[in-house]
Amino acid sequence: MPEKQNLDVLNTFCGRKYGRLGVIQLTRSASTTLAQLRSGHCRLSNSYNARITSGISDVCLECGVAPYSIEHLFNYQSHPTQLTLQDLWDNPAAVADFLNLDN
Fold it and tell me: What is the pTM of this model?
């Protein structure tokens, strides 16, 4: 068993677990939120909240213009990023960092 404990210490870096081949394993919460974002059914999006709850506007509270959709998360004027919707599939760890999902 001491070998397994040593591997756990070596595989942990900056609070994240690294699996085989150095692939980052996100927390369950972050993985769930990313899956919801991919499907378009996520409470981070006011567009989704407006569809399921009456009385909620889908307008972005910060810019007041654009619908607060998943696409808008990546096109925020006050939080610029090079990430795109495709990165939800191709680079989920970077998207999780950008959206502070592990905090």
Answer: 0.67
Give CA 1 to chain center in angstroms: 35
pLDDT per residue as tens digits for the range 15-52: 444 444 455 678 899 999 999 999 888 877 767 767 77
Residue 103 lies in a domain: no
40 in any annotated domain: yes
Q: Is 33 a domain residue?
A: yes
The tally of domains found in the chain comes to 1
Helices assigned H by DSSP within 12-74: 28-39, 46-52, 70-73
Q: 95's torsion region: left (phi>0), alpha (psi -120 to 50) or beta? A: alpha
